[in-house]
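Fold this sequence, please.
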Amino acid sequence: MITVARNALPALKATISGSDAQDFDSMELIVVDGASTDGTVDYLRQLSCCHRLTWISEPDRGIYDAMNKGVRMAQGRYCIFMNAADRFAAPDVLSRVAAMGMDADVVYGDIMKDGRLKAALTPRNSHRMYYCHQAAFTLRTLLLLYPFDISHPLSADFKQAKQLYLANHTFRHIDIAIADFDTNGISNTRRSAGLKDNISVVNEVDTLPWRLRLLPRLWFTYLSCLLRGK
């Protein structure tokens, strides 16, 4: 599990508490801290004494840069990103996923959002993410091959998902809630900016036929959000 944080000590503690509650032993915890000044470093030092924890605290170029660092630090076969304030949906999530078998390049599930289940969609090329990265287990080798593009500050995960799909890597959707999703993240609070970045990704990654199919809906949603001040 890779967790990135910056000056978010209470949220980081909640996320790590949720990982501690898992009834699955074969998990490493990677924390990438963006040079926090709120006591995070002292907390991580104390935590290192009794956890299977690897961590760094240094300046970064944003959340996706930190996530790329976490991938390079990891040793496991699959990575999942559970960032500060995100938590596993239940204590048995990892054991249930492992029992189902890791038989795809990306194995992903659903999320809990504001107390309600939000189901992911079947694998597809889309105008938006059809799953949340907080609910996806992705082969580390592919995360190294397709790192998050930090030139897309809000949609690097969207670009990566497209790249993996268009390169014919395999996806498997499992019908369980993986994560309790934090709705205060930047992708939710800056909706129109995120949609504009999605438009850039589609223009960059998709072929002309796909752009003609996907962009009209994206532009409509983007302009609607702008008019509503979102």
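The mean pLDDT is 92. The chain is about 40% helix and 20% strand.
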